[in-house]
Design a protein that fits this description.
By secondary structure, this protein is α+β, with helices and mostly antiparallel strands. Helix content is about 25%, strand content about 30%. It is built from 2 helices and 4 strands.
Length: about 70
């Protein structure tokens, strides 16, 4: 059996979907307040993988990924 120890720091990745690109900065600011500063943000790209979210969120969704170096 293993010996309990403090976990090592990990990087938290968050995939964001939105119908308006202007929504991303406020969500990323809130993520930063909760988990620490963002150390990487992807470019915004169209989300065309599935139409699963279309009924709830509308069409022409955008996706962006943010990374936070957690502790």
């Amino acid at each position: 059996m293993g010996t309990p120890r403090e976990p090592e720091p990990v990087k938290l990745f968050v995939g964001l979907l939105a119908c308006d690109e202007e929504l991303f900065p406020s969500v990323e600011a809130e993520l930063g307040a909760l988990f620490g500063p963002l150390d990487w943000v992807s470019r915004t790209v169209p989300w065309s993988v599935t139409d699963y979210y279309e009924r709830e969120m509308g069409s022409a969704l955008l996706r962006r990924t943010s990374a936070i170096l957690g502790s």
